[in-house]
Amino acid sequence: MTDPTTLLEGRAFLEGPRWHDGALWVSDMHAGEVLRVTLDGGVEVVARVDGDPSGLGWLPDGTLLVVSMRDRRLLRLETDGRLRVAADCSIVAPYEINDLVVDRFGHAFISQFGFDFHGGAPYAAAPLLRVDPDGSVHETADRLKMANGLVVTAAGDTLVVAESTGKDLVAFDLAPDGTLTNRRLWADLADYPDGICIDAEDGIWIASPVGDRFVRVREGGEVTDIVNVPGHHAIACALGGDDGRTLFLCTSSTHGQPDRSRAERGARVEVVTVGVARYPSRRRRSDLRRRAQHAWYAPTGARPDRG
Cys-Cys link to 146, which of 3, 62, 150, 164 (CB 3.0-4.6 A)? Predict the structure, then answer.
């Protein structure tokens, strides 16, 4: 494996990278921008989010969803380029929400801090959230230890969550209706995980912001590959590129302190070629047709479901 090269630099703090439709999409959290980055380094600002954008995902019909962290809302990008509220998570999330993954039926799973991270509060466990296609918000898995990155396996039947303060990956069976069962340890980790991504063999790359490295692990915890990024903190990662074997590495000179990140502009995207490609998207129009009765909308006064 060759050393990483720089694709993009001079950003504030990059999070939530996803490969979609021939480009890397990534949130510059502390600049309040969602970016589309091409393989030649071209950058387009797709959306501006005042509440700190983070996790990104797409519905089966191709609609972009964006997590707005501070105001704890899930936003959707309309065809006219405007952001609309898809769901308000603030009733069940007292502090910032974070990363996002969308399953093939359009259920959006969102991680949350569960405590005042930037205020220095002690760590507290918190539930994982799920937003259904009707806009309802559910607490779907309890007492996660600062849930962070999320992925769905290639078969589409397992959700894996990185617990940052738990130093592990936990897995759940994922049903077509979005229900999570059979919680189990997927892997113990030597590093505190931040963002994660998954490949076609269900190997999971984790970003280690303390270890300044990206590590690929198999279920059970076997480490197969390591990419070191000395001098920068490893924040998040995504697989993509023309052949699916480009690993995009979001790195930063800070650990995410907002003012310092904006002042230093030390965040960048680095790239390296890896041995196992990402798996192709499983979303199909047939999935959309099966769920056509569930229209995503901006609920007004809807009460989130805690069941």
Answer: 164
